[in-house]
Please model this.
Amino acid sequence: MVPPSAHLVARREAARRAFDLSRGAVLVPAGLPVVVAGTDEPYEFRVHPEHRWLTGLAEPGALLAFDPGEGFVLFFPERTEEERVWSGPGPDPERLREESGLDRIRPRAGLTEWLGARHGEPLAILGNPDFLSRFAEYDVPGWPRLWPALEPDLSTRLSKVLDVLRRRKDGVEIALLRRAAEISAAGHAAAAEVVRPGMTERELMTEVCAVFRRLGSRRDAYAPIVAGGENASVLHFAPTDRPFADGDLVLVDAGAEYGGLMGDVTRTLPAGGRFEPFQRDVYEIVLAVEEAAIARARPGVEYRDLHLSACTALAAGLVELGLLRGNPESLVERDAHALFFPHGLGHMLGLATHDAGGYLEGRPRSDRFGLKWLRTDLPLEAGHVVTIEPGIYFIRPLLTNRVWRERFREEVAWDRVDRLLGFGGIRIEDDVHVTAAGPEVLTHAAPKRAADLEAARRPSE
Ligand SMILES: [Mn+2]
Model:
């Protein structure tokens, strides 16, 4: 039988080889709880993804340590009597050993000695950098004397090594991502059934997140976006008590976390159960662009090319709608499409919603208006999991900006655009596992064809 921690042993072995250290030491702190200022209440603890990827654990205050001679050691916090009175016994070393597959599990009180024995060696700190300011809370009060010279270049190099390793998801991650995606899709399917005029953004968010919790997700992957009407033109809109009007489109971007892995799904729904003709025209353009990009998400394809093809297809759609004028390729070269689609086509998905490793080494981010918010620029490989999320929005701060209006005087039908400033926006987003056999859409169970969304709407009692 394969032990449940075999994949973690394999990850650490891959990291050990890729670190390629003949001397020196590495610390990977999990992170400490952060207290809300002015209260004695901590924010919900989120373990650093590098610590979780290497250990499978999410124990506040733990540190993974490594040196090429001894290998990996986990230092865990032992609780004081007072902590045991208020918060229970704390982590059990036997459970940590089983879950992580690590042989060396030691109380954190031994960390000072471990560091002292390696004094003078190059040291890298990965994981949560809170160690550098909160070393005393990690039981290393003598840190400033113990380690006067840190090697930031080594830390940067090793952190990039982990970014590269984390790109290709292993079997356990794929299984958890599938489940996170299924749960996320179920929440969106429920939203399509219950959305209606008079319901507020926060009420709809509650319906979606209740499905996530019931299906075993412990928390949301990110702060949910639920936006009715013009609010949907704000890319990261936080839901309010505003009720939906009958003709509103409602953009829902919400995902469940499962086993530390993230789901990330967006659907845009007609609040009244039917798309109006112009809404439907825009919707069909975005959907066709999304499906075409998904179909092309295969090993060897440059994500940036997927993004640029999507931009060209969106520009062609906007020309058809009479909102842009000209040849779609030249419109994209001039970034005119970015007035309506300013963000990137998507991102890597994993232990973080915007996961590590999105840019290939040596590729800088562009400062072009149409590319600067692209989060992914690398050739896709089997085992990558990415989102595909095109959209068309009517974003007031962009579309009323005099500089843009002057620069794109000829390309944009401004009189028509001005009448659409209250439209909001449409985004459609799925999570895609890239495989040699073709794209696996992990979130396929969330309906997205216009007719399916209209049919999903439960009749009002
Ligand atoms: Mn996303």
Q: What stands out?
A: The pocket of manganese (II) ion is lined by residues 264, 347, 387, 389, 429 (CB under 6 Å). The longest helix spans residues 171-194. The mean pLDDT is 96.
